[in-house]
Structures are given as structure tokens and as C-alpha cells.
UniProtKB/TrEMBL annotation:
Keywords: Glycosyltransferase, Golgi apparatus, Membrane, Signal, Transferase, Transmembrane. It comes from Colocasia esculenta. Gene3D superfamilies: Glycosyl transferase family 10, C-terminal domain. The keyword Membrane applies. GO terms for cellular component: Golgi cisterna membrane. Belongs to the glycosyltransferase 10 family. This is Fucosyltransferase.
Amino acid sequence: MVPSKTLGYMAPMLSLAVLLFLSRFLEFPSISSPLPTAGLPDPRAAAAATTIPATPRRKEPFTDLVGAFDRWDKVVGCERFREKHRGWAPNASALQEAGTGDCRGLEVPHVSVLVKGWTWIPDNLDQMYSCRCGLSCLWTKSEVLGDKPDALLFENVRPPLQDSNSASCFHVIGTSKDGCMEVGSVGPDAASGNLRQKGGPLRVYMDLEASRKPSGFEDIFIGYHAKDDVQTTYAGALFHNSRNYHVSRQKRSDALVYWSSSRCLPDRDQLAKSFLSLVPHHSFGKCLNNVDGLDMALDFYPECSNGENSPPHWYDHLHCAMSHYKFVLAIENTVVESYVTEKLFYALDAGSVPIYFGAPNVWDFVPPNSIIDGSKFSSMEELAAYVKALAADPVAYAEYHAWRRCGVLGNYGKARATSLDTLPCRLCEYISRKGGKNLRTL
């Protein structure tokens, strides 16, 4: 019989031996943690919200993305990820509510929008839409199909200052003796006032550039900010048509970061150079090119060809090419609140992790733990060290994709719901609530 005192000494030693034995076969969770969420972390982790996460310890270079997912499933899993982000609370007011208004507020059952001036609005938006509340919406660039429009839409093309068939500006002042609706004007002819023929189409102006400036001669303004009449984000699929959507399962290990820019802005290029000089990368496009020429992506990745006979353009194979990289550097032209453009969303759609520099409230538009916010690091050296370590930790890296696999979206669902994809129905509903051509206030 073994004395009880001896057993007291042996029990901890036996436990340690068993633990060491099992460690040969079991993988324990990585201690790596996601990047802080720009002031919007899980409230239970608020104390760590202002610090950079610990650098991943396990150095295990990998190339198979699906294999990394399998490892993450065994070590972490969706249940733990959902619980970890259950308290995620981005700023709901950063995005308008789509499809929530009372149907009784609609005043006209059908709205027709004629697109008169545009630079990049895709042709495949043109169609008849069956919207919520029984509202039908015709969106067209054809003056034949849209011969009696309720609204004329101008995108980055200022509406005409005075037109007998279109609305002039913001607020109805009254009705003139000849039956025209007199509209207050903020333009050069404000003194005389513009006149819109009663029953004429409203004028809609759309500007999604960083400056976001109303023309001063529209009834409805479309911009990227929630304060605009109708908000439109860059998160939708229609910002990238006619492209090869092949997503590579294999991630490169020799070049970690993808960067492509052909609009060479000094400040942005300097920021990119200061980071890219510290990490292995491929830089396509005109700016900081290091792949021996332009349009080299198809030489690297022939599977990214869209198969058409026309000469390839850089945007034809954008998603496919960047999907071969673990990270995509995404730098906005301008740092402005809520100005989160396709540069970030392209990377998410391609199955890469964006390294982002831009809008200070970016977390209001993206899923939790989906991007690396470069502004939260004290130096480029610190950021580069984190990226390199993350690239060598399959479990930690896979967690940046968990939002997609586990359905944890944060505000990203709302960002998609207020994108260009849904603009026709949302604009038509807004016009209907204003009374159509009667231009009634909400």
C-alpha cells in the first residue's frame, strides 16, 4: 500500500507527465489575438482595445488557405469566435437603415429614374425593379424607355442650372402665378430664383468622391455618408463587373503583400513605400512597380484571364491576382470619415486580409477581425513585424477569415445593403416618399 503522503507528491507529477505526453498529439490554441477595433472592441476586452495584439508565437509558414481553415476549426471554431464577438457594437448611425420604413409613407406606386450624366454607373443597373411595399422602379439610361421620368440622375456631372423640365434645387418656396414651383437656389442665379415646371422631374445628383460636394442644383443628393439624402457605399458587387472571380486556394509565401496603384499620389506612395520596403511584396501598376512592367498579373497568373478576345485591362483580373496573396495593402486617397472605398472591399471579396489606411471609422463598415488597421501601430516596423508573424501562423491568420465562415458580419451587412447594388430601389422609395414630381417634404 502506498502511503497517502507519497500519493500527494506523485499526483502533480503524473498530471504533468500526462500533459507532456498529450502535447505531442494535441495542438493548443494560438495566443495571437485580433487587431483592436478602432475604439469599437468587444466591451469585455476594452482594457486591451488601445494596444497592439501580441505577436503570434508559432512560426509555421503555410500556403494552403483551406488547410489553415481546417486547423482553425480544430483549435478555435465558430462557436468560440461568435462568443468572442457577441458584444461587438459598431456605430449603427454610420449607415442608413435600408428597407425599414413604413410602407404607408409611399405616395406613388411607380417611379422612373432616367440617368442623364454618368462616368462609371454600370449599364447592368438598367432594368425594371420590383421593390418592397409593392413599389416598382424603372432605372434606365434610355430616353426612349424613360420618356416620362420622375427624376433625372446626374453622377459627377452637375445638373443644368435651369431647365424647364427638371427640378432646380433644395427647398420649395412656393408656387408662382404661372403654375411653376419656385425653388430656392444656392447657385449664381440665386437672386432670380430657378423655376421648375410643375410636374417636371426631380434632379438627383450623385457624388461618391471624398470631397462629397452637392452641386447646389439638386433636389436629392446621393453620397457615401449617412447624413446624405440617400447613402451609397462602395461595398457592393456592382463596383467590380466583368472580372475573373477565381479565388486561389494557395497563398504565396515568398511575396506576402499585394499592392496595385496607377494613380501616383506623393503622400500615398510615400506611406506605401515606407511599409512595403519592410515586407516581401509584389507591386503592380504604375506606382512603385517591382514586377518588371505593367499588366504583369496575367504573366504571373494565367488562370486569371477572363477568356475574352479584347485586350486585358488591369481591373479584369484584379480579384483573381490579389487572391494569391495573404495581404492586400489598401490606402485611401484621402482620410475622411466614412470614406471607405472599393480598395478595401476588393481585398475582402478576394479572400485576402486588407492592411488598411484610411477612414478613422472603418470598423463601422467591415466585419469584426477582418482587417488590419495600420493606423493602430506605432511604427511601420511594428506593423511589418506583426504581418510577417501572422503570415507564419495558420491559425491566427485563418481567424481573419472567420467572419465570413461563421457569419459574424457586424455592420458589414448594412454596408452591403446600402451599396450601389440596392440604390435603384432605395432611391425610388425616397422619391416616392417625397411625393414624386410633387416634391413634397418627408
